[in-house]
Amino acid sequence: MSRIGRKPITVPAGVDVKIDGQHITVKGGKDTLEMDIHPDITVKMDGNIITVERPSDDKDHRALHGLTRALVNNMVVGVSEGFTKELQINGVGYKAQKQGKTVTFNLGYSHPIEMEEPEGITIEVPSQNQIIVKGADKQLVGETAAKIRSFRVPDVYKGKGIKYIDEHLIVKEGKTGAKK
User: Fold this and answer.
1) Which conformational region is residue 178 in: left (phi greater than 0), alpha (psi within -120 to 50 degrees), or beta?
2) Which of 2, 61, 101, 142 could form a disulfide with 66 if both were Cys (CB 3.0 to 4.6 A apart)?
3) Would you tell me how many other CB atoms lie within 10 Å of the CB of residue 19?
4) Nearest to 27 by CA among 101, 80, 104
5) Which of 127, 125, 136 is nearest to 84 (CA)?
6) What is the pLDDT of residues 42-54, one digit of tens each?
7) How does pLDDT run across 71-88, given as a tens digit for each residue?
8) What's the pTM value of the predicted model, to 2 decimals?
């Protein structure tokens, strides 16, 4: 039995959930998120508690059970609290600047990299070497942070590049000089 799928989801005050057949809409203070649920999975709401049920103990149904519950829970948490990912830029001359909805990165290339904020995402640059990605959709926040990180993945020898704030880098030892 799925431990995650069986857990009920408590809907906080200020969040409106509408279940229309296999389509679920979650509205909150931050945003509105929508999702289509697999036809085999049933989502029910009693008062302010959402439960996810499956028709059988089949392997596919068990997998969909936990997945659906996690996705619905992420929607509820996203519209009420939101999700954030923090990134840090390491390297001499590496920096980020925000002008309007455009973020400009100088990462040691011959040209600056410019990125527009995706719809539903806000990117904050509190200092030149720190980036904060915020939004209600957990997948979109993670995808945007991964795209920013891919502009300059941390170097394994010097540690230069863009890394997540909680990422621990293991810096390799370089070559040693030839012995005579």
Assistant:
1) beta
2) 2
3) 16
4) 80
5) 136
6) 999 998 999 999 9
7) 999 999 999 999 999 999
8) 0.87
Q: Retrieve residue 108's tokens.
A: 């040691």
Please report the DSSP string for the chain in residue order: --HHHHS-EEPPTT-EEEEETTEEEEE-SS-EEEEEPPTT-EEEEETTEEEEE-SS--HHHHHHHHHHHHHHHHHHHHHHT-EEEEEEEESTT-EEEEETTEEEEE-SSSS-EEEEPPTTEEEEEEETTEEEEEES-HHHHHHHHHHHHHTSPPPTTT--EEEETTPPP-PPP-PPPPP-
95's tokens: 């920096």
